[in-house]
Input
Amino acid sequence: MTRTIDRDDLERLAIGAGILGTGGGGNPYLGKLHARRLLDQGLTITVVPASDVPDDALVTTVGSIGAPVVSNERPKQGEEFLVSLRALEKHLGREITHVTCAEIGGSNSMSPMIVAAQANLPVVDGDGMGRAFPELQMDTFMIYGIDPTPAVISDPRGHVAIFDKLDDPTTLERYARTVTVQMGGSAGAAGPAMSGRAMKRVLIRDTITLAIEIGDAALKARATHADPVDAVLGVAGGQRLFRGKIVDVDRRLVGGFARGELAVDGIGPNDGETLKIDFQNENLIARTGKGEILAVVPDLICIVDAETAEPITTELLRYGLRIEVLGIPAPEALKSEAAMRYVGPAAFGYKDVAFVPLPGHFANNPNAFDLDAAMSHLASRSCGSPVVR
Output
């Protein structure tokens, strides 16, 4: 169903996307304020279901690349996404007809909303992760065969870098990350470009609606003095992993990423226990003091305020916060053998950690992604059959 986004939707989206961001994707707050200002100027934001997008449409993702902590210290100029979009159109010699989220997590949920208002384009309801990940190759577009280039990044001064022909998305990540560091550690990005037909094959659908529904559940629970954490899990699926107080945060900026470790002392049902969480922009693995792994990527490890379920991103972690750690099953698209190469534990250096999926389904919906169609397309590429972008 087509949806016109209003100020209340943006508030709900910020909460839901912050939770789905698993600590990364950037804090949605500044993006929410920017999108609100555009609405106040009389511009509109329209979200459409993937099924309504014509097969011959030209779709691209827009978002930020870089370390979230940099985005907080140096807010966006405001047109980085639009500049990147226009540069991509000029390079392709075609106009983009739709935009969508590279990742629904964090502030990158707001990026297409901003461009939609600025360029008067519809946003497709979905994304390539169902969460946030730190690197460009870690989305369903790249995993399931969309060409990674052309892609564009731009900085607050309007400087543009175009990556024209790179066959390997991991190489694109390495090159784009290096340029982003030189741009100050954060940039706006557009790409890849894909047909409507291809987008429908690789998109995790309806995640914008999901994020809004998660935020709505949290706000209604707060208003009625119900448990917001239970309300969030009722929509997102998943379970409580740990309740505690943050006692230490080791966070550093390395190679364009916020990397570190969080230490938590248990309270309530976890009194006397400890938990450690490793992160690289996003939370990657949660282990008890006894070495038990409670959850690991690609499953979602989400940190929220214990009383309000307000999401807490990695750059906002600090001593003394009372938190709940939630575990939400990853979308099926991220749990295939093809996806494990890019987003499984070994892709983050955990060579000896087996992925044991959390029980249940992402958003209680196993059909958010057509895995059979995506895998069939990958097989056709490997056999040398003609490819439709």
